[in-house]
Amino acid sequence: MEFVVLLVGVMLLGLLGLLGWAIYRAMKRRETGSPAAGGQAEPQSSTLDDSTYRVSYAPPEFEWSGTTTGTLPVKILTYKQYECLEDARYGFRIVGLPPTERKQPQPHKTRAHGLKTVASLTKHGFLADDGEGGYVITDRGLNALEVCSVRY
User: Fold this and answer.
1) Across residues 29-57, what is the average pLDDT?
2) What share of the chain is helix, strand, coil (3-state, %, to 5)?
3) Would strands 135-137 and 127-129 be described as parallel, antiparallel, or unpaired?
4) Bigger pLDDT: 79 vs 53
């Protein structure tokens, strides 16, 4: 019987400790003004609705124009294809290299991806030759990033 009382006491003490830690973290976040903690929330404009407001970390020139028509040749991107298109979206020049050369240092703003991945994305029209041995993303590739699912 004493053991059960002792066990319940230890559990209550542990729960109180966790509760105290959670309160401490919440107060610390509030002091620093973190928007996630409700500190300094960004003012919301009543003129923007969900269809016009979008969060993106890509430069504006690498956003899908919305003008590409027709269906895409694929509905699912492999993770490697998605990763390659994301690199291209963020302004990197894409080069296709064999596995032995992929880990070697590349020129500034260049990312190396597998030969098959680059060939497949080029075949589907998601990447275009830049004339210097590399590839850049097309509007169709930006569309694929918006609408295709990814297979991990």
Assistant:
1) 52
2) 45, 15, 40
3) antiparallel
4) 79
